[in-house]
Please model this.
Amino acid sequence: MELLIIIGIVIFVVWLIPTLHNIRRRDQEKTDKRIAFAKWANEQQDPHIVSMVQNLLREKRFTTWEEAVKYVEQTLNKPSPEPHTHVHANDKEGTPS
Model:
C-alpha cells in the first residue's frame, strides 16, 4: 500500500514540475510582450496609433500587437480614395419610366 502511495506521489511530482515550468514560461512571455508594447507605445509620436492598436487588441482582432501595428500603419498610409466628381444622382439613363 505504501508503495502505491509513493508511486502516486512520484507520478504527481513528475507531472507537476514540467507543468509549473510551462506556466512560468508562458507568464514570462506575456510579461515580455507587455514590456515590448509599452516601450513601443512610449516611442510613438502619434498617440492615435497607440489607441487604435489597443482597441484592436481589446477587440481580439489580432493575436499580437505587432500584427495590429502593421495593420494600423498600412491603414493610415493608404491614400484616401478621391471623392467622386461625377455624381449619378441626376442620371436617369437606364432607369425605367
